[in-house]
Amino acid sequence: MNISALLSALYSESERRAYFKKLEVMERGRSFLKARLYLSPDLFVQVYRNDHYNTTNFALIYNGRRIYARDQLGGLWHRHTVDAPDLHDTSHEGSRPVTLSEFLDEVEDILAAMGLP
């Protein structure tokens, strides 16, 4: 996925998922994109993509802390689980590539389990 496709997916997902209050494109260059999908001021999904380095980061942030994430570094994926957000999960499931839509589905399940909006 390149930044153009990711930006298109961000707009599509923000419209499709009514619980997102705002999409903010924070930075955009020729080869990189950083954006946030806000549920509330202290609860959001941060999305970063750098085409040059083949890096993608999807993170669920709550009260200034990452509580869940999936990262692609140099084409290889890993996950930061809710139980251990500072560790890299490189298991079969943890290293599985995901789309923005798949990540947001996971976020929905996490938010429901935590009782967050």
Mean pLDDT reading: 96
Uncertain segments of ≥5 residues (pLDDT<50)? none
Return the domain count.
1
Strand content: 35-45%
The portion of residues assigned to helices is 10-25%
Kindly state the number of beta strands: 6
DSSP helical segment count: 2
The Rg value, from CA coordinates, equals: 13 Å
Whole-Å distance between the termini?
A: 29 Å
**Molecular shape:** globular
Strand order of the largest sheet: 1-2-3-4-5-6
The SSE string, one letter per element, is HEEEEEEH
Structural class: alpha+beta
Largest sheet: 6 strands, antiparallel
Task: Describe the fold and architecture.
- The chain has 117 residues and is an alpha+beta fold.
- It has helices at residues 3-16, 100-114, and strands spanning 22-28, 32-40, 43-50, 55-62, 65-73, 76-80.
- It has one domain.
- A 6-stranded antiparallel beta sheet has the order 1-2-3-4-5-6, with helices on one face.
Q: What brief labels describe this structure?
A:
117 residues, alpha+beta, six-stranded antiparallel sheet, 2 helices, 6 strands
Concise synopsis of the structure shown:
The protein is an alpha+beta fold.
SSE layout:
Blueprint (H helix, E strand, L loop, with lengths): L2 H14 L5 E7 L3 E9 L2 E8 L4 E8 L2 E9 L2 E5 L19 H15 L3
Antiparallel strand pairs: 1-2, 2-3, 3-4, 4-5, 5-6
